[in-house]
Structures are given as structure tokens and as C-alpha cells.
Amino acid sequence: MNTIRTAAIPVFIFSVLLRAQAASDFDWTKVTATKELNWTPCYSGLQCARLEVPLDYSAPDNRVAGIAIVKYSFKSPKSEYRGPILFNPGGPGVSGVDAIVASGEAFGTIFGEQYDIVGFDPRGIHYSTPAASFFKTDVDRAQWEHPGVDDTYPSLNSSYDVIPTQRARYQLLGTLAEIQDTKNILQHITTDNVARDMLSITEAFGFEKLQYWGVSYGTVLGATFASMFPDKVGRLIIDGVMDGEAWYSGNITNSMEDTDATLQTFFDRCAAAGPDACPFHAPTAAAIAANLMALSTSLIDTPIPVITNVSYGVFTYTYLRNVLFTGLYTPYTSFPLLAQGLAQLATGNATILYQMAEEIPYECPRGSQRDPVEFDQNDQEASIPTACGDGPVVTDTVAQLRESYEIGAKLSSFWDMFGNWRVRCSGWKVHRKGHFMGPMGASNTSFPLLVIGNTADPVTPLSSARRTSGYFPGSALLTYDAPGHTSLTAASSCLHNHMRQYFQNGTLPEAGTVCSPDEELFPSTSGNKTVKRSAQDLKLREALRQIHAAVQPMTLRHLPRLR
Ligand SMILES: *[C@@H]1O[C@H](CO)[C@@H](O)[C@H](O)[C@H]1NC(C)=O
Ligand SMILES: *[C@@H]1O[C@H](CO)[C@@H](O)[C@H](O)[C@H]1NC(C)=O
Ligand SMILES: *[C@@H]1O[C@H](CO)[C@@H](O)[C@H](O)[C@H]1NC(C)=O
Ligand SMILES: *[C@@H]1O[C@H](CO)[C@@H](O)[C@H](O)[C@H]1NC(C)=O
Ligand SMILES: *[C@@H]1O[C@H](CO)[C@@H](O)[C@H](O)[C@H]1NC(C)=O
Ligand SMILES: *[C@@H]1O[C@H](CO)[C@@H](O)[C@H](O)[C@H]1NC(C)=O
Ligand SMILES: *[C@@H]1O[C@H](CO)[C@@H](O)[C@H](O)[C@H]1NC(C)=O
């Protein structure tokens, strides 16, 4: 049961596959769900348990879900123990277990060794049971998902029939989901229930109040928790904030407010960095933008075949759009590579850019067909029930989807990528009556929230962080003057000292606090920037580097479905 399926995992430049492999070393099928946390040693040095929670909190005696939980245990003397900090890496659909398996110790370094660092797979997802599944077998799923970015995430602007085709595709997927959902579990995979589960987890640790860090979609989860249980907030950081009001209204158009500004940082900093640090250099930002535009449109007429040592495929306009869009999430790692790839593309070779989103070809499982997947990379299945089931029923016709496209396209040139989420939800049919849909906010949470927003985040603009901070009077807004998605975009001792202070001492940053990253976007190749740092800062930086390396690619794996 434990073979790891590697198809449909775009290989970014990080070592996600190795980590996923490591994460598969533990057999979750042997861990039964219990009402108390029954810890078993796992993943060399961590502890695992499966918590039994009601599948339906309004009928608690009925069926149960089993939440997979991993902890990196506190190391300080018992008298200093401060309870669990729960982490959610976003999606919806990203595995919190894998995140903590890959970097739990680094979390301990950042927040302090008085805490248990806790990762959990939200209900329906990955190692948690029951698993959401739209397909009968892995092979069915692979055949649906496998074709690659061109088919899975087409640019809605790449041809006139993309919107109607995508709409029909998601009508089909929505119907498959309904057919496969004979046990009626999908309707219970919603954010409000995951928030309830977080309270159950906290209480199972023997604590009353939640301590939490959520990034990206994890901010919807965090803010939902604080709205539903304002007196159960111990410490709560939301980082890279999606506006919950928009989320529950089913219209997240505003998410794209800063997307083009993020791309603009590529042009600006590349122009400033010079041709050594930025191979796609031109004398002005405008010239670089024009060169990119020309290259992009040339792909419409002339897609490029690519063969690598891993796979082969055709590098198309849509492929480039995907690479550019996902690149905006992690500029500090992707921009230098993007610049190299674009310079190579200008010579007619698309290998580097192709490799930035390359997928490992699917291999059929050995032996007979496997059971419907319990423990697998059920990415779409983990994401769609929440992303679409949280909002209102969407019944958009092709004409309405085209209309939404026009609205979104006015806001951002990347709407051709992001608009897919609305199309996906137009096929989704499972909505539980009476689930939480807002309003977001609480006049008085039992501890103020810490809200973090970047100045140029491609999918969670600073305005969303500001608005969300407004829903929670007393919360503090910390601005991170950096491009990219969430504070994970780049290490910053300023920012992370604030996060640590918040957890340890309950100190909120002063109003108007702005932190800067410690890293450069296009590091100069001569690299003689010598800033003296304390040993503590260096240790922190190394820990942050580990978390970035582990969590970013997991988050990216789900892109650009939604963040
Ligand atoms: C493929 O080639 C790249 C270098 O271009 C190398 O880093 C990688 O390890 C190779 N992968 C395999 C599976 O051989
Ligand atoms: C393209 O560049 C790659 C290196 O990134 C090289 O291995 C390959 O041979 C080149 N392909 C062509 C057709 O020039
Ligand atoms: C969604 O939100 C945007 C921005 O607030 C708004 O302009 C638009 O009319 C809304 N509705 C649709 C269907 O896009
Ligand atoms: C769609 O593509 C056309 C060219 O094919 C381009 O002019 C237009 O700006 C694109 N629109 C968006 C929103 O990307
Ligand atoms: C807010 O809640 C805290 C803790 O629950 C309490 O001490 C405080 O008095 C409340 N403030 C207001 C304005 O209600
Ligand atoms: C918390 O406050 C105490 C006392 O003011 C201080 O000694 C300690 O360094 C602070 N901890 C952090 C993480 O800033
Ligand atoms: C590198 O250091 C030298 C000497 O300290 C200095 O003159 C030069 O401007 C520096 N270069 C950069 C890019 O900072």
C-alpha cells in the first residue's frame, strides 16, 4: 500500500521527490484511529498518531474520520513545555504531515524547543481517513491527470475552445466524484470541519487554546477557526492571506491584485542586476518585458520539442505560462533559473524551462490493480471538495465563464492561469447544507492574531492581509517587503524574530512594522556582500532555509490549481 506515486508531481528545482520518498517510509495503514492520542515512533525521531474525530460534527455518534498527526516533540525541560503548534501548509490539500516530517526540527529552532511541532493531514487528505477519491484506481487517476500542464492547466487564453473544454472536463470530474462518493464523505471535507478538527487535536493534547501557523490557504483555515472559536485562540499566525470573505463568496478575483507587480519585480531587478546575474538581461525593465512578450507569442506559432533524461514533451505557450506563473511564488529560487531558461529559449532551446515543470512519467503499479487509493497523492481530490465545497454552488455557463474571464483579465495578465479555479468549481456538485460560510472576524479573540502580508505576492495580495486584519480588531499586521508567496519566499531574521516573539512572549509587532528579506533576488556573482550575523541569526537562517526547501515545493506541487 505504500508505494509512492510519482506521476503528476511536477519536479521543480527542489528535492521534493526525495523527501516524498522519505515520507513514505512509515506505514500509516497500521495506525488505527483512537479518541486519545496514542503515539507511535515514526520517521526516525518523530511521533505519529491518528485521532478519531466525528466525520459529521452535527451527528457526532455516527461515522468517524481518522486524522493523521505527526509531532516533533518539545526538547526543553517539562516544566517549560508550552503545548502544540499546529502548522498548515495550504492548498487546500497539502500534507501537513509531510511538511513536518521534512522540517519539524527546523520549526523547533524557529519557535523554540518548548513546543511540540505538529503536522496533520486535513480530513480527506493524504494519510487521513477516509480519503477523498474520485477514481476507482490509481491508473484511472493517472490517466486523467497525467497528460501534463498543457491539458491539466491550460492557459484559458491559448485558444477559443479552452474555456468550454475545461468546463466540460470539470463537469465530468464533478460527476465522477459524485459517482465514486457512495459513502457521502466529500460533503464533510470543508474548512469549518477542519477547524473543528484543529480544536479536537488541541484538546487531545490537553490544551484549550489553539497555537497555529497557517500559510496560503492555511490562512482561510486559521481565520475561519478564529471566527468560529474566538475564545479558543492561543496564538494564531496567518501568513500570505487569502481574504476569507472572498473565499466563501466563491469569488476570489481580488487575489490577483499584486500578480503583475510580482512579475514586474523580475523585470526591474533583472535590469538592475546586469547580464552576469540575470542572463535574460536588457538595459531597461520595459525592454525585458517586451522580449518576454515576443518570446511567449512566438511559442504559439512555434512550440518546441524537448527530450530530457527524465521525459519528453512539447514546450508550448501554455507550458511557459505555467512556468512563469508558478515562478512568481518563489522568486528567490526561481527568478535566476527563469532568467537562464528564457535566455536559452531565445536561442530556440526550451530545455531549462521545460525542466522547471517536468513531470516524471507515470509507471503502472506492479502486480494487480490496487484498491481505491487510501494513502496517496490525491491532490485534486484533496483540494477540490474544500476549494469548491466551501463556496456557493457555481453553475456558470460558458458565456458566464467568459464574462468572469474578462473581469479577471482586466486585473491581471495571469488570469489565464488563475481563472481555472472558477471553471473547476463550475463542475462541482457536492455542497453540505449549513456549513460555515462566514462572516469572517470576531470582535474580541482570546489572543490577538498576527497577520503577515508580502508587498508583491502573486496570489495573496497585501490588501487581503489588511482587510483580514480589519476583521479581527486588535490583530497586528506585519508587512514583508518581498516578492513571492507567503513569508516562506525568503529568509528574514527580522520577520522570524517577530514570529518567535509572538509565540514565546505574546509580543505583537508595532503598527506599521515592515521587515525586509536577508536574501537578494539576483545575487551578484561576485557576491561580496558581507553582513555580519550572530550565531543565533545564522542558525535561524539555516532552519528557515530547510523549511523553505521542504514546504515550498509541496505547496508548488498543487499549483496552479489554487493556492
Ligand atoms: C538528469 O540530468 C540532470 C542534469 O541535467 C541531472 O541533475 C539529473 O540527476 C539527471 N537525472 C537522471 C534521472 O538521470
Ligand atoms: C538544449 O540545452 C540543453 C542544456 O540545457 C542541452 O543538453 C541540449 O543538447 C540542447 N538542445 C539542443 C537541441 O540544442
Ligand atoms: C468578483 O469580484 C470582482 C472584484 O471584486 C468583481 O469585479 C466581479 O464583478 C465579481 N464577480 C464576478 C462574477 O467576477
Ligand atoms: C490573450 O492573448 C492575446 C494574444 O493572443 C493577448 O493580446 C492578450 O493580452 C491576452 N490576454 C490575457 C489576459 O492574457
Ligand atoms: C477580550 O477578551 C479578553 C480575553 O477573553 C478579555 O480579557 C477582554 O476583557 C475582552 N475585551 C473586550 C473589549 O471585550
Ligand atoms: C521574551 O521576553 C523575555 C523577557 O522580556 C526575554 O528575556 C526573552 O528573550 C524574550 N524571548 C524572545 C524569543 O524574544
Ligand atoms: C565588492 O567589494 C569591493 C571592495 O570592497 C567594492 O569596491 C565593490 O563595489 C563591491 N561590489 C559589489 C557588487 O558590492
Automatic annotation (TrEMBL):
Signal peptide location: 1-22
Record key words, sorted: Hydrolase, Signal
Gene Ontology MF term list: hydrolase activity
Entries under Gene3D superfamilies matching the protein: alpha/beta hydrolase
Peptidase S33 tripeptidyl aminopeptidase-like C-terminal domain span: 414-515
Ranges where the AB hydrolase-1 domain occurs: 84-241
UniProt cross-references to PANTHER family, sorted A to Z: 2-SUCCINYL-6-HYDROXY-2,4-CYCLOHEXADIENE-1-CARBOXYLATE SYNTHASE (PTHR43248), AB HYDROLASE-1 DOMAIN-CONTAINING PROTEIN-RELATED (PTHR43248:SF25)
Family the entry assigns: Belongs to the peptidase S33 family.
Full protein name: AB hydrolase-1 domain-containing protein
